Amino acid sequence: MSEPSIFFEDVNEKQGTFHRRIFLMGGVTALGIFALGGQLALLQIVQGGKYKRLSAANQFNFRVVPPPRGKILDRNGNVIAGNRPSFRVLIIRNEIDDLDDTLDQISYVLPQVQDNRRRIVRDINQSQRFVPTVVAADLTWEEFSRVNLFAAEIPGVQAVMDEIRVYHYGGAFSHVVGYVSKISEKDLEAEGENPDPLLLHPGFRIGKQGVEKAFDKQLRGVAGAQKIEVNASGNIVAEDPDGTRPPTPGEDITLTLDAEVQARALEVFEQDSGSAVLLNIHTGEILCMVSAPSFDPNLFVSGISSKAYKLLNEYERRPLLDKAIGSTFAPGSTFKMASALSFLDYGIDPTEKVVCRGSYRFGNRTFRCHGVHGAVDMRHALKFSCDTYFYHMCNRPGVDRIAATAHKLGLGELFELEIEGQKKGLVPTTEWKRTYFDGTKGRPKDPKWHPGETLSVAIGQGYTTVSALQLAVYVSRIANGGKAVTPHLIKKIGAVDKDFDFKPLGIPPEHIQIVRDGMEMVSNDADGTAFRNSQLNLGDMKMAGKTGTAQVINYDRAGTRKATQWKNKDHGLFVCYAPVDNPRYAMAVIVQHGIAGGRFAAPKAREIMKVALLKDPELQARIVAPPPPEPVEAAETAPPEVESTEVAPESIEYIPPVP
Questions:
Q1: Residue 587's closest CA among 465, 474, 485?
Q2: How far is it, in rounded angstroms, from Cα 294 to Cα 426?
Q3: pLDDT digits (tens, 9 = 90+) for 426-457
Q4: What is the Cα–Cα distance from 480 to 483, expressed in whole angstroms?
Q5: Where is the segment annotated Disordered (predicted)?
Q6: Residue 387: its pLDDT value, please?
Q7: For a Cys staple, 476 with which of 281, 383, 403, 630, CB 3.0–4.6 Å?
């Protein structure tokens, strides 16, 4: 058997290979240790602050605390729009695992949640995951207490007490003050790229109309923040008072409106449709601006049902429309003061008389007057509202001069009012007709102004349309002697009062006095068109006014002046100011399809005006003062009194007169 062979390798070669492997493995290990050490240094030293904040964020949350919305007050400090406590339940989507299970647990405590489940799921799906969603609102104290017992055991559910908007006068201020409602996507887009986080809060409401919308940013205030400690389930463990920032309440806004006058105005309209505007003729402060019928703005705060909204929107008397500034009507005979002033500006003698026989023939057409007034001058034409007088005179100055005077008095104008929604209306001119009736957009081509059209404009018909606010400004400028008073609604924001100064219109005072004389005769002469319904019965205080009736349909085409359908009846208008001898307030009332201004609009104006006069401290003293003593007429043949003496005077012989 042969012996095994033994082979020896080179020892130095084997050792070299071993050393290279150790060096390579050691290098890799050292590199790994170095990288790990560097990463640890980066995390602990360089980025330590960042991860410390992230860690704290998992432990602490900041929640937006909405500020109390600023109050809206009337001129006397009465709260029109304020806030009241509201108990609600919220769900934060990113803090719950199973939405259905969470809703089932809440439904066990609040059965009404099950009825609104579809709406709740829709709202949660539409909102961002970190934004709370309202599950139930306006809970009673018992419901809120019950849900509080279980809220801590249901992840992502909060029972909170917030404030909700409340309107104390219901529909009296609904159009001018407006309302707040849930914020929409369109509202968010209008806020820009970085909207206020407050807008995402489920309890936040944004102004949608009127003063609430125009001054939303001043009213909403600045949101606060609450720093709270939470556990791994997201439930609140404690609050950190050092990290909590209180909210800044919104500013209060004081209006020029008077709550009692406003409420009385809505009351006198009852079921009628129309509007009323009352101004201080010296300051332009609006004491009353009502549109009827109205609606309750409280319905919109928590969200109005589609059925209720449809009923409001489709009702023919349009309760959602602000008829005081957002609707225009033919002014009818209330326009005649503007026509009269244009006649005077042209140089027509106010004593010149026109004989009214009940109609006026112009060209091949007969224009009717509502009565037979005989020979009337300008003052009596206003008193009797004689159309024939204005038909006869109007083409002397022409439509452009009439329009210029009307615009000067505020008709067909937009004012710098603090809220949106004004409609300009129209006082036509020859230039307007030339550009409007140009044959485009389905309109006939008839650019020439015809003299017969001026007759309609002169009595406030035809193309002429104005708003109730414009009529109130118009009669204010007549009552104050020709100052360009402009209306405003805001008395002060916070503690800052607003101040105004008005320039003269450039209308001669003697011209204004002539139309004021006519207006005084309308309301205070026994045969004036508004005598019966213009008596204030406040001592010696009197009111001056002007009635108006505006056609809605063509009588010739309809075949009668007495329409049976409400929508075809004439509008009734009345403008007035008081007191006559020292004017303070002016107003305009429009009763939509109210048939006649003297019978339907004037009584409403009288009742509203009486409240304003009775509330004025300076005028109160005059109203309650005893009437001045009546002058005593001297006796026809009273002999001189003889002073009594102890000795009787000598007898005086009576000598009869010589026949």
A1: 474
A2: 26
A3: 999 999 999 999 888 888 888 999 999 999 99
A4: 6
A5: 624-659
A6: 95
A7: 281
At residue 338, the pLDDT reads 97
Residue listed under structure tokens 């505007």: 277
- Could you give the C-alpha distances from 250 to 158, 162, 175, 216, 449, in angstroms and in order? 25, 15, 21, 9, 54
Percent of the chain at pLDDT > 70 equals 81
Write out the two tokens for 143: 């419901």
Distance CA 362, CA 30 (A): 114
Q: Which residues, other chains included, contact 207 with Cβ-Cβ below 8 Å and sequence gap of 6+?
A: 178, 179, 180, 213, 214, 215, 216, 219
Distance of alpha carbon 301 from alpha carbon 502, whole angstroms:
39
Domain coordinates in residue numbering, the chain: 71-168, 260-621
Instruction: Residue 83: count other Cβ atoms within 10 Å of its Cβ.
Output: 17
Task: Look up the pTM and report it.
Answer: 0.81
Q: How many whole angstroms separate alpha carbon 401 and alpha carbon 429?
A: 9
Helix (H, G, I), strand (E, B) or coil at 229: strand
Q: Are strands 253-255 and 60-65 parallel, antiparallel or unpaired?
A: unpaired
Express each pLDDT in 229-271 by its tens digit. Answer: 655 555 555 566 666 778 888 999 999 999 999 999 999 998 8
Instruction: Return mean pLDDT, the chain.
Output: 83
What is the Cα–Cα distance from 248 to 388, expressed in whole angstroms? 64
Superfamily of domain covering 71-168: Penicillin-binding protein 2a (Domain 2) (3.90.1310.10)
Amino acid at 254: T
Contact 572, 591 (CB under 8 A): yes
582/622 Cα distance (integer angstroms): 12
Helix axes 141-151, 99-109, angle to 10 degrees: 140
